[in-house]
Amino acid sequence: MKIAVLSRNPKLYSTSRLVEAATELGHEVRVCDPLLCYMTIASQRPTIHYKGEELTGFDAIIPRIGASITFYGTAVVRQLEMMGVYSLNESVAISRSRDKLRSLQLLARKGIGLPVTGFASSTKYTKDLIKLAGGAPLVIKLLEGTQGIGVVLAETGKAAESVIEAFRGLKENILVQEFIKEAGGSDIRCFVIGDKVVAAMKRQGAEGEFRSNLHRGGNASIAKLTPEERSTAVRAARIMGLSVAGVDLLRSNHGPVVMEVNSSPGLKGIEEATGKDVAGMIIKFIEKQAKPGKTGTRGKG
Predict the structure, then answer these.
(1) 112 and 239 Cβ atoms separated by less than 8 Å
(2) CATH architecture of the domain covering 2-89
């Protein structure tokens, strides 16, 4: 097969591992920076070009679209879908998962366990919003934040009010969520491919840090999941319409709760923690699924 990896940096661990795995399995692979792609939008013959040449003949694409380029990156994916190219994760599913509020609403609608979450535009009723989210301590998140950036733990009601008012003063949209204290600064990253969790790791935040992101100095170890956790992760990915996803769970007193569903989960942490060839599993999944014109997002929203 001829596969394109849409990635801004071919030297990134995840990108290079996907190229390596695909090459080992006998496929032709090309890394394309989505921001250097440009397109003609036409009903008869839509085209996409890259560095002065037309991109044709691809059987499948693997989108590795960073959060900062979601709008343009998904436009490139959508154009390739219009041309009948199979996309590992489709444009609508990527957009859906990137919108934290929208994704939580979709998960809630399907009965997935979530931390109690509040959202508001005005700061006039901040105290009531804090109360609805379970009161302090609570977590305040920027809707556009990634890798733990823009996430604050407010220990008291007064601190929460100050942070919320500061963020809203900057015209930022935020979520207010209950703090799952029993998680102890750790979460579970479940790596879902198709309808199966193929690998899972426990991420533990650095000492004194409530965020468990590896980018924030956390460490990872292999995790053993319960049947409920596996089911929750697979269902969350399916609701988003994602074939490949990193589903982040917290272990709460009332069962697993989903914090986020990531459409471009990194491979480095999960492969190192579990010793599994996750990149190879992704390519083998594409081998089974990729067929000309096989697009059309699963799920709704």
Answers:
(1) yes
(2) 3-Layer(aba) Sandwich (3.40)
